[in-house]
UniProtKB/TrEMBL annotation:
Pfam families: DPRP. The lineage of its organism: Bacteria, Pseudomonadati, Bacteroidota, Cytophagia, Cytophagales. SUPFAM superfamilies: Cryptochrome/photolyase FAD-binding domain. This is Cryptochrome/photolyase family protein. It comes from Algoriphagus limi.
Length: 509
Protein backbone atom coordinates (compact mmCIF):
# COMPACT_ATOMS: atom_id res chain seq x y z
CA UNK A 1 0.00 0.00 0.00
CA UNK A 2 1.15 3.56 -0.75
CA UNK A 3 2.24 5.59 2.25
CA UNK A 4 -0.46 8.13 3.08
CA UNK A 5 -0.37 11.41 5.00
CA UNK A 6 -3.76 12.44 6.40
CA UNK A 7 -4.31 15.95 7.73
CA UNK A 8 -6.70 16.44 10.67
CA UNK A 9 -7.74 20.03 11.30
CA UNK A 10 -8.45 21.33 14.82
CA UNK A 11 -12.22 21.16 14.29
CA UNK A 12 -12.19 17.65 12.81
CA UNK A 13 -11.97 15.67 16.04
CA UNK A 14 -14.37 12.98 14.87
CA UNK A 15 -13.32 9.64 16.35
CA UNK A 16 -15.97 7.81 14.38
CA UNK A 17 -14.62 8.86 10.99
CA UNK A 18 -14.15 5.87 8.69
CA UNK A 19 -10.46 6.83 8.40
CA UNK A 20 -9.94 5.32 11.82
CA UNK A 21 -11.66 1.99 11.14
CA UNK A 22 -8.37 0.38 10.20
CA UNK A 23 -4.96 0.59 11.84
CA UNK A 24 -2.18 0.85 9.32
CA UNK A 25 1.51 1.59 9.81
CA UNK A 26 1.60 3.21 6.38
CA UNK A 27 -0.82 5.95 7.37
CA UNK A 28 0.49 9.00 9.23
CA UNK A 29 -2.01 11.40 10.77
CA UNK A 30 -0.84 15.01 10.86
CA UNK A 31 -2.12 17.51 13.41
CA UNK A 32 -0.69 20.98 14.03
CA UNK A 33 -1.35 23.88 16.39
CA UNK A 34 -0.95 26.84 14.07
CA UNK A 35 -0.53 30.59 14.42
CA UNK A 36 -2.65 30.99 11.28
CA UNK A 37 -5.54 29.62 13.36
CA UNK A 38 -4.86 31.56 16.56
CA UNK A 39 -4.33 34.81 14.64
CA UNK A 40 -6.92 35.06 11.80
CA UNK A 41 -9.10 36.91 14.31
CA UNK A 42 -8.55 37.80 17.99
CA UNK A 43 -10.05 34.82 19.82
CA UNK A 44 -11.22 34.41 23.38
CA UNK A 45 -8.46 32.84 25.47
CA UNK A 46 -10.79 30.00 26.48
CA UNK A 47 -11.45 29.21 22.83
CA UNK A 48 -7.74 28.83 22.04
CA UNK A 49 -7.27 26.67 25.14
CA UNK A 50 -10.32 24.53 24.36
CA UNK A 51 -9.21 23.80 20.80
CA UNK A 52 -5.61 22.95 21.71
CA UNK A 53 -6.65 20.79 24.68
CA UNK A 54 -9.19 18.91 22.60
CA UNK A 55 -6.72 18.42 19.75
CA UNK A 56 -4.13 17.04 22.16
CA UNK A 57 -6.53 14.61 23.76
CA UNK A 58 -7.76 13.53 20.33
CA UNK A 59 -4.19 12.83 19.22
CA UNK A 60 -3.57 10.79 22.41
CA UNK A 61 -6.74 8.83 21.75
CA UNK A 62 -5.72 8.00 18.19
CA UNK A 63 -2.32 6.82 19.40
CA UNK A 64 -3.90 4.68 22.13
CA UNK A 65 -5.97 3.09 19.38
CA UNK A 66 -2.76 2.23 17.52
CA UNK A 67 -2.63 5.00 14.90
CA UNK A 68 0.52 6.91 14.01
CA UNK A 69 0.22 10.64 14.67
CA UNK A 70 2.70 13.41 13.98
CA UNK A 71 1.63 16.29 16.23
CA UNK A 72 3.14 19.78 16.09
CA UNK A 73 2.58 21.70 19.32
CA UNK A 74 2.41 25.48 19.09
CA UNK A 75 5.87 25.85 20.70
CA UNK A 76 7.65 22.94 18.97
CA UNK A 77 10.89 24.30 17.50
CA UNK A 78 10.16 22.18 14.41
CA UNK A 79 6.77 23.88 13.94
CA UNK A 80 7.47 26.36 11.12
CA UNK A 81 3.91 27.72 11.41
CA UNK A 82 3.56 27.34 7.67
CA UNK A 83 1.00 24.69 6.74
CA UNK A 84 2.40 24.04 3.29
CA UNK A 85 5.93 23.63 4.64
CA UNK A 86 4.74 21.30 7.39
CA UNK A 87 2.92 19.10 4.89
CA UNK A 88 5.92 19.07 2.54
CA UNK A 89 8.23 18.23 5.45
CA UNK A 90 6.08 15.25 6.50
CA UNK A 91 5.84 14.06 2.89
CA UNK A 92 9.63 14.08 2.68
CA UNK A 93 10.38 12.62 6.12
CA UNK A 94 7.90 9.75 5.89
CA UNK A 95 8.34 9.18 2.14
CA UNK A 96 4.67 9.80 1.60
CA UNK A 97 3.06 8.90 -1.72
CA UNK A 98 -0.45 10.26 -1.21
CA UNK A 99 -1.92 13.22 0.72
CA UNK A 100 -5.47 13.19 2.05
CA UNK A 101 -7.60 15.64 4.02
CA UNK A 102 -11.18 15.95 5.18
CA UNK A 103 -13.18 18.73 3.51
CA UNK A 104 -12.80 21.78 5.77
CA UNK A 105 -15.85 23.70 6.90
CA UNK A 106 -14.34 27.10 6.32
CA UNK A 107 -13.93 28.71 2.94
CA UNK A 108 -10.47 30.15 3.68
CA UNK A 109 -9.13 26.68 4.56
CA UNK A 110 -10.78 25.11 1.57
CA UNK A 111 -9.00 27.61 -0.68
CA UNK A 112 -5.70 27.14 1.13
CA UNK A 113 -5.77 23.36 0.90
CA UNK A 114 -6.75 23.45 -2.76
CA UNK A 115 -3.78 25.72 -3.41
CA UNK A 116 -1.39 23.52 -1.42
CA UNK A 117 -2.57 20.37 -3.22
CA UNK A 118 -2.08 21.99 -6.61
CA UNK A 119 1.60 22.43 -5.73
CA UNK A 120 2.24 18.91 -4.40
CA UNK A 121 4.11 16.48 -6.59
CA UNK A 122 2.11 13.55 -5.19
CA UNK A 123 -1.55 12.60 -5.55
CA UNK A 124 -4.02 14.23 -3.17
CA UNK A 125 -7.61 13.56 -2.22
CA UNK A 126 -10.31 15.30 -0.14
CA UNK A 127 -12.87 13.16 1.68
CA UNK A 128 -16.08 14.05 3.49
CA UNK A 129 -15.79 14.92 7.19
CA UNK A 130 -18.69 12.51 7.90
CA UNK A 131 -20.18 14.89 10.42
CA UNK A 132 -23.12 16.72 8.88
CA UNK A 133 -26.44 15.28 7.80
CA UNK A 134 -26.18 16.74 4.32
CA UNK A 135 -23.43 17.32 1.80
CA UNK A 136 -22.02 20.80 1.26
CA UNK A 137 -24.08 21.53 -1.85
CA UNK A 138 -27.39 19.99 -0.71
CA UNK A 139 -29.07 23.19 0.43
CA UNK A 140 -28.14 25.12 -2.71
CA UNK A 141 -29.82 22.40 -4.79
CA UNK A 142 -32.80 22.19 -2.46
CA UNK A 143 -33.55 25.93 -2.85
CA UNK A 144 -32.47 26.31 -6.46
CA UNK A 145 -34.00 29.45 -8.00
CA UNK A 146 -35.37 30.78 -4.68
CA UNK A 147 -34.38 34.21 -3.28
CA UNK A 148 -35.18 33.40 0.34
CA UNK A 149 -34.14 30.06 1.77
CA UNK A 150 -36.93 29.10 4.14
CA UNK A 151 -35.40 27.21 7.07
CA UNK A 152 -38.69 25.56 7.95
CA UNK A 153 -38.91 23.71 4.59
CA UNK A 154 -35.35 22.47 4.95
CA UNK A 155 -35.98 21.38 8.54
CA UNK A 156 -39.05 19.34 7.59
CA UNK A 157 -37.05 17.63 4.89
CA UNK A 158 -34.39 16.66 7.48
CA UNK A 159 -37.04 15.34 9.88
CA UNK A 160 -38.46 13.10 7.15
CA UNK A 161 -35.13 12.03 5.73
CA UNK A 162 -33.69 10.99 9.11
CA UNK A 163 -36.99 9.86 10.62
CA UNK A 164 -36.74 12.15 13.62
CA UNK A 165 -39.87 12.87 15.68
CA UNK A 166 -41.95 11.28 12.93
CA UNK A 167 -45.05 9.14 13.08
CA UNK A 168 -44.85 7.45 9.71
CA UNK A 169 -45.03 10.27 7.19
CA UNK A 170 -46.54 12.76 9.64
CA UNK A 171 -44.80 14.80 12.37
CA UNK A 172 -45.30 13.38 15.85
CA UNK A 173 -48.30 14.85 17.66
CA UNK A 174 -49.47 16.42 14.40
CA UNK A 175 -47.26 19.54 14.36
CA UNK A 176 -43.86 20.32 12.89
CA UNK A 177 -43.16 23.29 15.08
CA UNK A 178 -43.97 24.13 18.70
CA UNK A 179 -42.20 27.50 18.67
CA UNK A 180 -45.26 29.36 19.94
CA UNK A 181 -44.95 27.46 23.23
CA UNK A 182 -41.26 28.28 23.63
CA UNK A 183 -41.18 31.92 24.58
CA UNK A 184 -41.55 32.28 28.34
CA UNK A 185 -39.57 34.46 30.70
CA UNK A 186 -38.14 32.66 33.71
CA UNK A 187 -40.02 33.66 36.85
CA UNK A 188 -38.83 31.02 39.31
CA UNK A 189 -35.13 30.87 40.13
CA UNK A 190 -35.51 27.52 41.84
CA UNK A 191 -35.98 25.76 38.50
CA UNK A 192 -32.38 26.51 37.54
CA UNK A 193 -29.75 23.77 37.55
CA UNK A 194 -25.98 24.08 37.81
CA UNK A 195 -24.14 23.42 34.53
CA UNK A 196 -22.17 20.20 34.05
CA UNK A 197 -18.60 21.43 34.16
CA UNK A 198 -15.23 19.68 33.85
CA UNK A 199 -12.82 21.69 36.00
CA UNK A 200 -9.16 21.24 35.10
CA UNK A 201 -5.93 23.06 35.70
CA UNK A 202 -4.63 24.26 32.33
CA UNK A 203 -1.95 26.62 33.68
CA UNK A 204 0.84 24.94 31.75
CA UNK A 205 -0.82 25.37 28.35
CA UNK A 206 -1.93 28.86 29.36
CA UNK A 207 1.72 29.83 29.95
CA UNK A 208 2.73 28.32 26.60
CA UNK A 209 0.11 30.44 24.84
CA UNK A 210 1.22 33.59 26.67
CA UNK A 211 4.88 33.27 25.63
CA UNK A 212 4.59 33.87 21.87
CA UNK A 213 2.19 36.74 22.67
CA UNK A 214 -0.80 35.31 20.91
CA UNK A 215 -3.34 38.12 21.18
CA UNK A 216 -6.56 37.04 22.90
CA UNK A 217 -9.66 38.55 24.50
CA UNK A 218 -11.71 37.55 27.51
CA UNK A 219 -10.83 36.10 30.86
CA UNK A 220 -9.91 32.67 32.20
CA UNK A 221 -8.96 31.12 35.51
CA UNK A 222 -6.26 28.73 34.25
CA UNK A 223 -6.56 26.57 37.41
CA UNK A 224 -10.26 26.16 36.81
CA UNK A 225 -11.01 25.66 33.13
CA UNK A 226 -14.58 24.43 32.68
CA UNK A 227 -15.25 23.32 29.10
CA UNK A 228 -15.37 19.66 28.00
CA UNK A 229 -12.31 18.77 25.92
CA UNK A 230 -12.65 15.02 25.36
CA UNK A 231 -15.41 12.99 23.77
CA UNK A 232 -16.21 11.37 27.13
CA UNK A 233 -16.65 14.76 28.75
CA UNK A 234 -18.83 15.94 25.86
CA UNK A 235 -21.00 12.83 26.25
CA UNK A 236 -21.38 13.64 29.95
CA UNK A 237 -22.59 17.14 29.06
CA UNK A 238 -25.11 15.56 26.67
CA UNK A 239 -26.36 13.10 29.32
CA UNK A 240 -26.61 15.88 31.83
CA UNK A 241 -28.64 17.92 29.37
CA UNK A 242 -31.11 15.07 28.81
CA UNK A 243 -31.49 14.32 32.51
CA UNK A 244 -31.63 17.85 33.90
CA UNK A 245 -32.22 20.55 31.32
CA UNK A 246 -34.32 19.16 28.49
CA UNK A 247 -37.42 19.30 30.64
CA UNK A 248 -37.42 23.13 30.38
CA UNK A 249 -35.31 23.73 27.27
CA UNK A 250 -38.12 24.91 25.01
CA UNK A 251 -40.03 26.84 27.67
CA UNK A 252 -37.10 29.12 28.52
CA UNK A 253 -35.17 29.02 25.26
CA UNK A 254 -35.83 32.73 24.71
CA UNK A 255 -35.58 33.85 28.34
CA UNK A 256 -33.13 36.52 29.48
CA UNK A 257 -31.98 36.74 33.08
CA UNK A 258 -29.25 38.05 35.36
CA UNK A 259 -29.62 34.90 37.50
CA UNK A 260 -27.72 32.48 35.32
CA UNK A 261 -25.61 32.57 32.14
CA UNK A 262 -26.76 29.23 30.70
CA UNK A 263 -30.40 28.71 31.77
CA UNK A 264 -31.52 25.42 30.19
CA UNK A 265 -29.21 25.61 27.19
CA UNK A 266 -27.10 22.56 26.44
CA UNK A 267 -23.55 24.07 26.12
CA UNK A 268 -22.99 21.52 23.34
CA UNK A 269 -22.02 23.85 20.49
CA UNK A 270 -18.27 23.48 21.03
CA UNK A 271 -18.59 19.70 21.37
CA UNK A 272 -20.37 19.56 18.02
CA UNK A 273 -18.41 22.24 16.18
CA UNK A 274 -15.13 20.52 17.05
CA UNK A 275 -16.86 17.30 15.89
CA UNK A 276 -16.28 15.43 19.15
CA UNK A 277 -20.03 14.79 19.00
CA UNK A 278 -22.04 14.33 15.85
CA UNK A 279 -25.32 16.23 15.39
CA UNK A 280 -27.20 13.03 14.56
CA UNK A 281 -26.02 11.24 17.69
CA UNK A 282 -27.00 14.24 19.84
CA UNK A 283 -30.45 14.44 18.30
CA UNK A 284 -31.05 10.68 18.44
CA UNK A 285 -29.97 10.49 22.07
CA UNK A 286 -32.28 13.34 23.03
CA UNK A 287 -35.19 11.79 21.13
CA UNK A 288 -34.56 8.42 22.76
CA UNK A 289 -34.37 9.95 26.22
CA UNK A 290 -37.63 11.76 25.61
CA UNK A 291 -39.34 8.58 24.41
CA UNK A 292 -38.75 6.98 27.78
CA UNK A 293 -39.76 10.15 29.70
CA UNK A 294 -42.80 11.30 27.78
CA UNK A 295 -44.88 11.73 30.91
CA UNK A 296 -42.52 14.36 32.36
CA UNK A 297 -41.19 16.05 29.24
CA UNK A 298 -43.46 17.66 26.66
CA UNK A 299 -42.74 17.38 22.95
CA UNK A 300 -42.29 21.16 22.67
CA UNK A 301 -39.03 20.97 24.68
CA UNK A 302 -37.60 18.25 22.47
CA UNK A 303 -38.79 19.60 19.15
CA UNK A 304 -37.38 23.03 20.05
CA UNK A 305 -33.98 21.52 20.70
CA UNK A 306 -33.92 19.22 17.68
CA UNK A 307 -34.91 22.10 15.39
CA UNK A 308 -31.83 24.05 16.47
CA UNK A 309 -29.55 21.23 15.38
CA UNK A 310 -30.98 19.51 12.33
CA UNK A 311 -32.73 22.73 11.36
CA UNK A 312 -30.73 25.86 12.08
CA UNK A 313 -27.24 24.42 12.42
CA UNK A 314 -27.40 22.27 9.33
CA UNK A 315 -29.19 25.00 7.38
CA UNK A 316 -26.60 27.66 8.27
CA UNK A 317 -23.84 25.44 6.99
CA UNK A 318 -25.74 24.95 3.72
CA UNK A 319 -26.27 28.71 3.30
CA UNK A 320 -22.55 29.27 3.91
CA UNK A 321 -21.49 26.96 1.11
CA UNK A 322 -24.25 28.22 -1.20
CA UNK A 323 -23.26 31.87 -0.77
CA UNK A 324 -19.55 32.15 0.04
CA UNK A 325 -17.31 33.97 -0.68
CA UNK A 326 -19.65 36.86 -1.61
CA UNK A 327 -21.60 36.46 1.63
CA UNK A 328 -18.66 37.83 3.61
CA UNK A 329 -18.96 41.22 1.85
CA UNK A 330 -22.69 41.81 2.16
CA UNK A 331 -23.81 45.03 3.83
CA UNK A 332 -27.46 45.54 2.83
CA UNK A 333 -27.97 48.68 4.93
CA UNK A 334 -24.55 50.16 4.14
CA UNK A 335 -23.74 50.40 7.85
CA UNK A 336 -20.38 52.01 8.67
CA UNK A 337 -20.08 52.64 12.41
CA UNK A 338 -17.43 51.08 14.63
CA UNK A 339 -18.39 48.86 17.55
CA UNK A 340 -18.42 50.81 20.80
CA UNK A 341 -15.40 50.22 23.06
CA UNK A 342 -17.50 48.61 25.77
CA UNK A 343 -18.01 45.51 23.61
CA UNK A 344 -14.50 44.59 24.85
CA UNK A 345 -15.04 45.46 28.50
CA UNK A 346 -18.74 45.06 29.22
CA UNK A 347 -18.61 48.48 30.90
CA UNK A 348 -21.88 50.09 29.88
CA UNK A 349 -24.80 51.33 31.95
CA UNK A 350 -27.19 49.23 29.85
CA UNK A 351 -27.77 46.16 32.00
CA UNK A 352 -28.80 43.83 29.18
CA UNK A 353 -25.55 44.59 27.37
CA UNK A 354 -23.25 44.66 30.40
CA UNK A 355 -24.63 41.25 31.47
CA UNK A 356 -24.47 39.63 28.03
CA UNK A 357 -21.03 41.01 27.17
CA UNK A 358 -19.67 40.47 30.70
CA UNK A 359 -20.57 36.78 30.68
CA UNK A 360 -19.18 36.42 27.14
CA UNK A 361 -15.85 37.77 28.36
CA UNK A 362 -15.92 35.53 31.45
CA UNK A 363 -17.15 32.32 29.87
CA UNK A 364 -16.72 32.60 26.08
CA UNK A 365 -20.45 31.87 26.05
CA UNK A 366 -23.75 33.63 25.61
CA UNK A 367 -26.95 31.89 24.66
CA UNK A 368 -28.83 32.50 21.45
CA UNK A 369 -31.21 35.24 22.57
CA UNK A 370 -28.40 37.21 24.20
CA UNK A 371 -26.48 37.03 20.90
CA UNK A 372 -29.50 37.83 18.74
CA UNK A 373 -31.73 40.17 20.71
CA UNK A 374 -29.23 41.95 22.96
CA UNK A 375 -25.78 42.38 21.40
CA UNK A 376 -26.87 41.75 17.80
CA UNK A 377 -30.00 43.86 18.15
CA UNK A 378 -27.99 46.79 19.52
CA UNK A 379 -25.35 46.53 16.77
CA UNK A 380 -28.01 46.54 14.06
CA UNK A 381 -30.00 49.43 15.55
CA UNK A 382 -26.81 51.45 15.98
CA UNK A 383 -25.70 50.80 12.38
CA UNK A 384 -22.42 49.01 13.10
CA UNK A 385 -20.47 47.78 10.07
CA UNK A 386 -21.12 44.02 9.65
CA UNK A 387 -17.36 43.37 9.38
CA UNK A 388 -16.92 44.78 12.89
CA UNK A 389 -19.81 42.70 14.20
CA UNK A 390 -18.52 39.55 12.51
CA UNK A 391 -15.02 39.95 13.91
CA UNK A 392 -16.37 40.30 17.41
CA UNK A 393 -18.64 37.25 17.24
CA UNK A 394 -16.02 35.17 15.47
CA UNK A 395 -13.53 35.90 18.24
CA UNK A 396 -15.47 35.84 21.45
CA UNK A 397 -17.45 32.60 21.47
CA UNK A 398 -16.04 29.16 22.20
CA UNK A 399 -18.14 27.75 19.34
CA UNK A 400 -17.37 30.43 16.76
CA UNK A 401 -16.30 29.03 13.41
CA UNK A 402 -16.97 31.06 10.33
CA UNK A 403 -19.45 28.68 8.65
CA UNK A 404 -21.90 29.02 11.53
CA UNK A 405 -20.84 32.41 12.88
CA UNK A 406 -21.11 34.49 9.70
CA UNK A 407 -24.48 33.12 8.62
CA UNK A 408 -25.87 33.80 12.07
CA UNK A 409 -24.24 37.20 12.46
CA UNK A 410 -24.26 38.78 9.02
CA UNK A 411 -27.41 36.92 8.02
CA UNK A 412 -29.79 36.24 10.87
CA UNK A 413 -28.68 38.99 13.23
CA UNK A 414 -27.57 41.90 11.02
CA UNK A 415 -29.79 41.26 7.95
CA UNK A 416 -26.74 42.31 5.94
CA UNK A 417 -27.69 39.66 3.36
CA UNK A 418 -30.91 41.56 2.64
CA UNK A 419 -33.09 38.57 3.47
CA UNK A 420 -31.50 35.27 2.48
CA UNK A 421 -31.55 33.77 5.97
CA UNK A 422 -34.34 35.78 7.57
CA UNK A 423 -37.50 37.34 6.18
CA UNK A 424 -37.12 40.48 8.31
CA UNK A 425 -34.51 42.07 10.58
CA UNK A 426 -34.47 40.90 14.20
CA UNK A 427 -34.79 44.26 15.94
CA UNK A 428 -36.71 45.31 19.00
CA UNK A 429 -37.15 48.18 21.40
CA UNK A 430 -36.84 47.65 25.16
CA UNK A 431 -40.30 46.05 25.14
CA UNK A 432 -39.02 42.68 24.05
CA UNK A 433 -36.05 42.64 26.44
CA UNK A 434 -38.31 43.63 29.33
CA UNK A 435 -40.85 40.94 28.43
CA UNK A 436 -38.23 38.19 28.30
CA UNK A 437 -36.62 38.72 31.71
CA UNK A 438 -35.26 40.91 34.48
CA UNK A 439 -32.48 42.94 32.84
CA UNK A 440 -34.53 46.13 32.74
CA UNK A 441 -35.30 45.86 36.47
CA UNK A 442 -31.59 46.38 37.21
CA UNK A 443 -30.78 49.00 34.59
CA UNK A 444 -29.75 52.65 34.85
CA UNK A 445 -32.10 53.42 31.95
CA UNK A 446 -35.86 53.27 31.91
CA UNK A 447 -37.38 50.75 29.54
CA UNK A 448 -40.57 52.79 29.36
CA UNK A 449 -39.05 56.04 28.10
CA UNK A 450 -38.15 56.97 24.56
CA UNK A 451 -36.76 60.43 25.22
CA UNK A 452 -35.02 62.08 28.13
CA UNK A 453 -31.89 61.47 30.13
CA UNK A 454 -33.02 58.08 31.42
CA UNK A 455 -34.60 56.83 28.19
CA UNK A 456 -33.54 53.33 27.16
CA UNK A 457 -31.30 53.68 24.07
CA UNK A 458 -33.04 50.73 22.37
CA UNK A 459 -36.29 52.72 22.19
CA UNK A 460 -35.11 55.69 20.14
CA UNK A 461 -32.56 53.68 18.15
CA UNK A 462 -35.33 51.29 17.13
CA UNK A 463 -37.30 54.06 15.42
CA UNK A 464 -34.14 55.65 14.07
CA UNK A 465 -33.34 52.31 12.40
CA UNK A 466 -36.76 52.03 10.77
CA UNK A 467 -36.81 55.67 9.76
CA UNK A 468 -33.38 55.68 8.14
CA UNK A 469 -34.02 52.40 6.30
CA UNK A 470 -37.55 53.17 5.16
CA UNK A 471 -36.79 52.78 1.48
CA UNK A 472 -35.28 49.35 1.97
CA UNK A 473 -37.86 47.95 4.38
CA UNK A 474 -41.23 49.58 3.85
CA UNK A 475 -42.35 47.17 1.16
CA UNK A 476 -41.57 44.12 3.26
CA UNK A 477 -45.02 42.69 4.09
CA UNK A 478 -43.83 41.63 7.56
CA UNK A 479 -42.79 45.19 8.45
CA UNK A 480 -45.54 47.47 7.14
CA UNK A 481 -47.19 47.66 10.57
CA UNK A 482 -44.10 49.25 12.15
CA UNK A 483 -44.23 52.11 9.61
CA UNK A 484 -47.95 52.65 10.21
CA UNK A 485 -47.24 52.99 13.95
CA UNK A 486 -44.29 55.31 13.30
CA UNK A 487 -46.35 57.52 11.01
CA UNK A 488 -48.93 58.01 13.72
CA UNK A 489 -46.40 58.94 16.40
CA UNK A 490 -46.43 62.59 17.50
CA UNK A 491 -42.90 63.10 18.82
CA UNK A 492 -40.89 61.77 15.88
CA UNK A 493 -38.36 64.59 15.90
CA UNK A 494 -37.57 64.23 19.62
CA UNK A 495 -37.12 60.48 19.21
CA UNK A 496 -34.79 60.89 16.24
CA UNK A 497 -32.83 63.64 18.04
CA UNK A 498 -32.51 61.41 21.08
CA UNK A 499 -31.17 58.56 18.94
CA UNK A 500 -28.69 60.89 17.22
CA UNK A 501 -27.46 62.13 20.60
CA UNK A 502 -26.98 58.56 21.80
CA UNK A 503 -25.10 57.63 18.62
CA UNK A 504 -22.84 60.67 19.08
CA UNK A 505 -21.76 59.43 22.50
CA UNK A 506 -22.08 55.72 21.84
CA UNK A 507 -18.92 54.91 23.84
CA UNK A 508 -20.44 56.45 26.97
CA UNK A 509 -23.84 54.77 26.99
C1 LIG B 1 -25.19 36.62 16.18
C2 LIG B 1 -25.10 35.14 16.43
C3 LIG B 1 -23.88 34.50 16.30
C4 LIG B 1 -23.80 33.12 16.50
N1 LIG B 1 -22.60 32.50 16.33
C5 LIG B 1 -22.51 31.16 16.48
C6 LIG B 1 -21.27 30.51 16.30
O1 LIG B 1 -20.26 31.12 16.00
N2 LIG B 1 -21.22 29.16 16.48
C7 LIG B 1 -22.33 28.45 16.83
O2 LIG B 1 -22.22 27.23 16.98
N3 LIG B 1 -23.51 29.05 17.00
C8 LIG B 1 -23.64 30.38 16.85
N4 LIG B 1 -24.85 30.99 17.04
C9 LIG B 1 -26.04 30.16 17.32
C10 LIG B 1 -26.35 29.92 18.81
O3 LIG B 1 -26.43 31.16 19.47
C11 LIG B 1 -25.33 29.01 19.48
O4 LIG B 1 -25.20 27.81 18.74
C12 LIG B 1 -25.77 28.62 20.89
O5 LIG B 1 -25.96 29.78 21.66
C13 LIG B 1 -24.73 27.70 21.53
O6 LIG B 1 -25.08 27.40 22.85
P1 LIG B 1 -25.70 25.99 23.27
O7 LIG B 1 -24.82 24.90 22.78
O8 LIG B 1 -25.96 26.05 24.75
O9 LIG B 1 -27.04 25.99 22.44
P2 LIG B 1 -28.50 25.40 22.71
O10 LIG B 1 -29.41 26.54 22.91
O11 LIG B 1 -28.49 24.34 23.72
O12 LIG B 1 -28.87 24.77 21.28
C14 LIG B 1 -28.45 23.45 20.91
C15 LIG B 1 -27.59 23.48 19.69
O13 LIG B 1 -28.30 23.94 18.58
C16 LIG B 1 -27.42 24.55 17.67
N5 LIG B 1 -27.93 25.89 17.36
C17 LIG B 1 -28.80 26.62 18.06
N6 LIG B 1 -29.09 27.75 17.41
C18 LIG B 1 -28.36 27.76 16.29
C19 LIG B 1 -28.21 28.66 15.22
N7 LIG B 1 -28.88 29.80 15.13
N8 LIG B 1 -27.32 28.34 14.25
C20 LIG B 1 -26.62 27.19 14.29
N9 LIG B 1 -26.73 26.30 15.28
C21 LIG B 1 -27.61 26.58 16.26
C22 LIG B 1 -26.06 24.63 18.32
O14 LIG B 1 -25.25 23.60 17.79
C23 LIG B 1 -26.36 24.37 19.78
O15 LIG B 1 -25.32 23.74 20.46
C24 LIG B 1 -24.96 32.38 16.85
C25 LIG B 1 -26.17 33.05 17.00
C26 LIG B 1 -26.25 34.41 16.78
C27 LIG B 1 -27.57 35.09 16.91
S1 LIG C 1 -33.80 49.45 29.93
FE1 LIG C 1 -32.99 49.24 27.90
S2 LIG C 1 -30.78 49.19 28.13
FE2 LIG C 1 -31.68 48.80 30.13
S3 LIG C 1 -31.79 46.58 30.29
FE3 LIG C 1 -33.76 47.28 29.49
S4 LIG C 1 -33.52 47.17 27.28
FE4 LIG C 1 -31.46 47.06 28.13
Amino acid sequence: MAKILRLILGDQLNESHSWFDEKNEDIIYLMAEMRQETDYVVHHIQKVLAFFLSMRSFSDRLQERGHRVHYYKIDDPSNSQDLEKIIQECIKNYQIEKFEYQLPDEYRLDEQLNAICSKLSIQSKAVDSEHFLTERGFLADFFKGKKTYLMESFYREMRKEFNILMDGKEPMQGKWNFDQENRSALKDKRLLRKPKIHPKNVSELYEVIQKPQIKTIGRVEPENFLWPTTREECLEVLDYFCENLLIHFGDYQDALTTWDPYLFHSRLSFAMNSKMLSPLEVVQKVEKYWESHRKEISISQVEGFIRQIIGWREYMRGVYWAKMPDYGQLNFFGHERKLPNWFWTGKTKMKCLSSSIGQSLDLAYAHHIQRLMVTGNFALLAGIHPDEVDQWYLGIYIDALEWVEITNTRGMSQFADGGIVGTKPYVSSANYIKKQGNYCDHCAYSHKEKVGEKACPFNSLYWHFYNRNREKLEKNPRIGMAYRTWDKMKNKKEILDQAEAYLEKINEL
